[in-house]
Structures are given as structure tokens and as C-alpha cells.
Amino acid sequence: MRITSARVIVCCPGRNLVTLKIETDDGVHGLGDATLNGREIAVVSYLENHLLPALIGRDPAAIEDIWHYAYLGAYWRRGPVTMTAIAAIDVALWDIKAKVAGMPIYQMLGGASRHRIMAYGHAEGEDIAACLDSAQGFVDAGYDAIRLQCGLPGVGTTYGVPKDGQTRYEPADADLPAEHVWNTARYLNQVPKLFEQARRRFGDDVHLLHDVHHRLTPIEAARLGRDLEPYHLFWMEDSVPAENQAAFAMVRSHTTTPLAVGEVFNSIHDCREMIQSGSIDYIRTSLTHAGGITHMRRIAHLAELHHVRTGCHGATDISPVGLAATLHFDTWVPNFGIQEHMPHDDIVAAVFPSNHRFEAGYFRVDDTPGHGVDIDERLAADYPFKRASLPVNRLEDGTVWDW
Ligand code: GCO
Ligand code: MG
């Protein structure tokens, strides 16, 4: 069996999504997700100009060999563009291999470790009351885990909170970056109040999560972790910018609030130190941005040795193809923790017919061979690429800050 074609399909059914389609002389095809939010075309170019020409004529079954050919063969290593491009190839090849075997991908990995996948939903609101009302909707829908994000009094738009009637907090249609405002002092005072009220309203049984989105210094994150201890969070995510892995050891030494990190990582080397030092509890690397199934498996095995569980990134910038591959990984991975869930719009679901199901806070994959997602290319063509940018954050005095 040989690869006869490998091409990239870019579409924007409400948000940009990049899909790699690999075809073979047997007529079997595989799909991989190559979406890197706000930097989509960089990955398209990397694939089209550098990686895809070298795939033609290769045996699609040789996944490890092709992975290392792409990774080592570039000489230049790691980074989001490279690792997203490699992930797309990897997932498309796993899709082909599993289709040829007549099995779902989770079976190829070693079989199911669980029959359903706990997911957390995103509750958000401009103030505490609105956020708790939003969370009530998730409780009523049967979710066992909810992420809470709320706006700050007197501060403009902030991460995780949609404004002005928008349904999304990430303006994927902004041609140039929108500018948000940040005030650490108000944030540190507001978040414990949010969780205090959430526990009072929803009781102890629901898992509560929070995403700091990289905006604190280590000692500020330590304070927040301590202040949140009475409300026993499932995790506090990305509490400090993660380039400095040692910062997590510092936060850890001050608080028992569980720590999660990883959505901006692309390789095992980005998280090795914090996993091995026991500084984190959940690794949130996304399969789409960290070299696909082949590399995520290595990260998960390292994490398992150190009692770290997975919590894969699953925002809407992970396409249904990337999500399905992640759900097969979640079904198999022994040290699973939780899966993020942000629903795609109906039009995205129409472009990408999928076989996984979501019900009352839990995902399930079925036994469709491969990862179970296809693309309607004719429909996708109706939604051409639109340049889009993630926001930039500034302090109130204008200083650029982490978003
Ligand atoms: C999350 C993430 C996302 C990211 C987004 C960037 O935890 O879901 O922080 O909201 O901001 O994926 O593209
Ligand atoms: Mg996050």
C-alpha cells in the first residue's frame, strides 16, 4: 500500500479549521487536524512546502518511521507549527491503519480503559451571578465537571468571558488582534469569591475547574492556589506562564490545589521537568499540537510514572478530527483524568460528519474503523479561510501582558 496524495483543506465554517487528507492506492484515506489557532496558514505552508511532497509513494503503515523522518529530518526541532504539521500526518496515518485493520483507533492502542469519557464544560459570565447561572445550565444538563470563568468588576473584556452578546470568548473573526485589559489585584480578589459562592450553590459533588491562562507570577499563583483550597478545585490551569517549568515547583510548594498545564506545549521536552519533579497533577497537551497520537502516547507514559493524569485540550480550535483522535486516545490512556469540552457549531458538525457522541457531560466513541470523522469537501468549499487573530492583553497602563 502506498500514499498517492496528501493535501490540505482549509475552511472557515464559523472559525478556521485546517484538515490534512492522505489518500492511498488502496482507496483508503485518512484525515488529520492541522489547526493552529490564529497561525493556520503557517502550518499549511509547512505541510505543503516541506512535509507532504516527501510522503508520496511511502507506505502509510510506517507511522513511527514517518514521524521520525518528519521530526528529525527537519534538523530544526519542536515548536507549534512543526509539531502541529507532524500531528496532522500522524493522525491521518493512524486513521488509515485502523481503517485497514477494520478497528477503531482505541483498539489499535491497546483497547478501552473506560467506557465513557468525563468532560468539563465552560461556564462563563460577566460577573459572579451570571457565571453561576451559566454553571447551573451545566449542572442541569448532567455535567459532573464545570470550568468557571467570570469578568472582573470595572475591567473590560477578559479571557474566558464573552462580551456584547457574543457567544464565543475567542473572537476568531478579528482580522487584527483585539485588545483586552488585565488587572491582577482585582482578579486575585474576585476568583475565591466566585468559587465560594459556587460551592454554596452547587454543593461538594460537582468538580470545579479554573483557567488562569498564564497571567500570574509564581507567588501570585501560590496565593490564589491557597485561597482556593477550601473549595477543593479539580484543577487550577496554566497558573503561570509555562516557559519556566521550575515556576510550577514553586507554586506547588505553597498549595494543595491541583495544578494543570500544557495546552501551549508541543513536545515531551516542554513538560518533562515539571512531570519528573512532581510539580503538576494534570498534563493538558493537545494531541493536535503535540505530534499526534504517537507523541502524546510518550507524554502519557512519562506522566503515568509520576502520578500525573491527562486532561487534553479540547477548545473549539481543535477540529472534530482532532477531537475524535483525542477521544480515542482518552478511551485508551490508562492515566486519563478529564477531557475539555467546548461544543462546535452545528455548521462545523455538518462539514465534519462524526461518529463520537456526547451526552450529559460524557463522550463516547463507537467502533467505526479509524477515528470516525470525515469531511464534506463540497460543503467545506462554501466557507473559505478568513484571517483571524487571538486577542492581546494589556495592563491598565498599556503594558503588554499574557493573555
Ligand atoms: C482552554 C484554552 C483555550 C485557548 C485557545 C487558544 O483552556 O480551553 O485556554 O481557551 O485560549 O485554545 O486557541
Ligand atoms: Mg486553557
Key descriptive features of the protein:
about 400 residues; alpha/beta; Enolase-like, domain 1; TIM Barrel; three-stranded antiparallel β-sheet; binds magnesium ion
Describe this protein's structure:
The protein has helices at about 40-50, 65-75, 80-100, 105-110, 130-140, 185-200, 220-230, 245-250, 270-275, 290-305, 320-330, 345-350, 375-380; strands at about 5-10, 15-25, 30-35, 115-125, 145-150, 180, 205-210, 235, 260, 280-285, 310, 335-340, 355-360, 360-365, 390-395, 400. With about 400 residues, the protein is of the alpha/beta class. The protein has an 8-stranded parallel beta barrel with strand order 4-5-7-8-9-10-11-12, surrounded by 4 helices. It has a 3-stranded antiparallel sheet with strand order 1-2-3. Helix 3 packs across helix 10, helix 6 runs parallel beside helix 7 and helix 7 runs parallel beside helix 8 (about 245-250). The longest helix is centred in the N-terminal third of the chain and has 22 residues, at about 80-100. Magnesium ion binds near residues 211, 213, 237 and 238. Magnesium ion binds near residues 213, 238 and 263.
